[in-house]
Write a structure and sequence with these properties.
- By secondary structure, this protein is α/β, with parallel strands linked by helices.
- The protein has 5 helices and 5 strands.
- Helix content is 47%, strand content 18%.
């Protein structure tokens, strides 16, 4: 069971190619997890942010460049609906995981703990 009192304010997340409604819903849920969100579309954030986890669209024209740019960062594909084919395609392309709306803080805490913590542990080693 996840500790709901545990803070994740050391985690930083970036979004790429998400629809506005998905971006807003995901941002709201991650904020409940005390995760910092960086907008990669703004130059100042792009220059200073080294995200611990990246959330992006499953569209190949978005996913492939993100996977290339963030080779050592977990990339989670975000969709409006859970689709088995989309999930498998994303994983085969190299994504770390897949999540669909509606976003639950417990689900997002698990993603942060599983993927972002593992990345931080590797970086510290």
């Amino acid at each position: 069971m996840l500790d709901s009192n545990k803070t994740h304010n050391n985690y930083k997340a970036s979004f790429f190619g998400l629809e506005k409604v998905l971006s807003t819903a995901l941002s709201d849920a991650l904020t409940l997890c005390n995760c910092l969100i960086f907008n990669q579309n703004q130059q100042q954030d792009r220059d200073r942010a080294r995200p611990d986890i990246v959330f992006c669209s499953p569209a190949p024209d978005v996913l492939q460049p993100v996977l290339q740019r963030f080779k050592h960062t977990p990339v989670v594909v975000v969709s409006r609906l859970p689709e088995v084919d989309g999930w498998l395609d994303a994983l085969e392309a190299g994504a770390a995981d897949y999540c669909a709306a509606p976003f639950e803080p417990t689900q997002l805490r698990w993603l942060l703990d599983t993927h972002a913590r593992a990345r931080k542990a590797l970086a510290a080693a």
